Each structure stands twice: as C-alpha cells, then as structure tokens.
Give the backbone structure.
Amino acid sequence: MRLAAVIVVLVAFTAWSLVIVAPEGLPGLLALLRDLPWGRQVFVDLCIALSVAWLWLVPEARARGISPWPYLVATPFVGSISLLAFLLHRELVVRRTAAAR
C-alpha cells in the first residue's frame, strides 16, 4: 500500500509540475519571487521545509545503504520530486530487505 501511494504521488506531482513549470521555466519563478511578497514567503517556507527533509533524509538513507547525494543535489532543482524519488527508492530497499529475510 505504501509503495503504491508513493508511486501515485510521485507520478501525479511530477506530471502536474511539468505542466505548470514547463511553459514559463526559471523566468516564471524569478518573476514570482521578484514581483510578489507572497511568492518570496512561499519560497523561503519551501527552503526551510526541504532543509528539514534533508536532515531526515541523510541518516535515513545511510541506515538503508542508500547514497543520499543524488537526492540532495536534485532537491534545489526539482524540490519535492527528489524527496518523493527517495521515498520510492527507500521503499524498494525495505521490500527487498524484507524479501531476503
């Protein structure tokens, strides 16, 4: 159940993000940050949330034998998508470990 939920959220959020972000790209983000205080607040909020996620991700990845670096490097570029990808990877490792026992 957890694996299916992670896959659904990862695929749906990635697809939705591509539809929203692709037309404007980085200039759209920069305009949002430049023109709207609300945009800046959301950006800072997301930076804080992703930093907290990093603090959890590193020890969790190492405990599961997963390198955290691909996910840490990807996070500034794709945000939560990299964290969702880590959750998918983690879930697959957990299942593989359980099956091996």
Observations:
- The CA atoms of residues 71 and 82 lie 5 Å apart.
- The chain is about 90% helix and 0% strand.
- The mean pLDDT is 92.
- Residues 2-100 form one domain.
